[in-house]
User: What shape does this take?
Amino acid sequence: MCGIIGVIDRSKERMDGQAIRSALSMMDERGSGEGAGYVAYGAFPEFADYYAIHVFFDAIHETKAAVDEELSKWGTIVHEEEIPTFEQPNIRKIHTPWRYFFQPDARLMPRSTTPEDDIVMHVVMKVNTSIPGALVYASGKNIAIFKASGWPEEVADFYRIQDYKGYIWLGHNRYPTNTPGWWGGAHPFNLLHWSVVHNGEITSYGTNRRYIESYGYRCSMFTDTEVVAYLFDLLVRRHHLAPELAVRALAPPFWDEIDRMPGREAHLNRAIRLTYGPALMNGPFAIVVANPDAIVGFTDRIKLRPLVTGTMGPRLYISSEEAAIRVMEPDVGDIIMPRAGEPVIGRVYT
Amino acid sequence: MSSQWGPDAVMDRVRIDAAGMHYTPLNRAIRSAVEEGAREIEIYHVMGQRFIADGLKGDVTLIIHGVPGGDLGMFMSGPTAIVHGNCDHAPGNTMDSGLIVIHGSAGDAVAHSMRGGKVFVRDSIGYRGGIHMKQYRDKCPILVVGGSFRAFLGEYMAGGLILALGPPTNSPIRERGIGSGIHGGRIIIRGDVDDEYLGVGATKSPLSRGEKEEISPLIQEFASCFRIDPDVLLEDSYVQIRPSSSRPFASKYTWE
Assistant: This one.
């Protein structure tokens, strides 16, 4: 099942985490207490220019040195700290959450057009596949992720998300079905500037995973949502597709619909389906994706999971349930259920 | 010896403030009010509580203010639920008898597996409205929608009636899979639907004058519920979608 909610303030006014905590808790029935999480964009203004690398450490005294060494090989650790947590009765702190603010050395990847991003992606994949007991679960600039095994309100209180502010927030309440609940399997999933929350299942995970791994990504979190973050990174950051077209690749129209489209549109949609066939996601899903400029919500092509949107002034809300949006914004307007496969996009004002 | 404002009348009418209340105590409060003889229960500040009035029996009217969560009136048998707000998924799920009136819109799978009674939605509904509605002898569930519907209306429908009154002129229907897998019951749609939007096993025919007369009391009941003018609805033409044969999927599941 799972419950999702996201909000963007397009004027970039920052909100604290109190309201999204209440909204996600209202959807407790959509989860099982085995995973919840939040992401805030704009959370670290004092370190906004550095990559905020978040790591879950097991037995930190044994594992951290290897991560420090890997980071130091590729750049400078500008600041680091244990992420403050506050004991909750039902959350067992089995990992130590840590954050580094990291400046990659662009000279070390001279052939890349985006050397800093590529270095960070390399470090994330390297740590997650070769350093046991360390899992990088966030790596973007000015992006904070808070996740653990527990109910939405417990996880929020564990990190005291009311003490953080962001102009974009996403929240997720997990009901794990195919893989066990664990901290790394809680949403949001993040890579670089992308964060994803997802309700449903990606039944095409095997195909998608083989495809994305051929581009150097490594899936290490035992759950399908991970591929969505990597697919967005590949299609939008590296292939420069507009988010609308990226969604078209992941949840394309049916062939019979394409056949009925006018010439140019049919041509474009056919090209996307043929080019990105292995990126097509099957199964039931409702997804909200964020990057620093926008949030995008969309569902699978036959609408097997719910998604509702609403607006209030500069704010766009996307959620599994209208009531959750109304918890955050009682007077929200324009309540809409987007059509299957059609993206709803809220961009920051430029 | 009870007047409208006498003590009995006060007992008859109960108010519940549901602000911050979980659905379990809310349903408990509704049930105990019904047991104590309440005829009308007005519930305020409803915000996402699921399962309201599930399995509820009796001659009682619930007036719900707010946005109830999923599965409103599931297995409900007898009561009337009037919602002033939008509903989430599957109001009327497997409902047995009674009436749900929604002054707003509703989410996906409205009237899911419904087996009796009526669900009236003033505005639009999401995907898979009336999925797997069924009927048996005198039990014939009815879903009426005043606005638009989305794809897979009446999916796997086994019985009952879906009546879609959305105005045909503003936006032609572009929803795929209407009646996909239908093997019983009827879907009646105001205006027309292109054949390409019919689901597997569904077939379309115009609604005859006689058949239209049969549904005109239903149209009038719906119109009076929401205080809209029934005349335009009664004058327009309709099509009906039914199973293409008595057992359209016989060859799929059996070998004879």
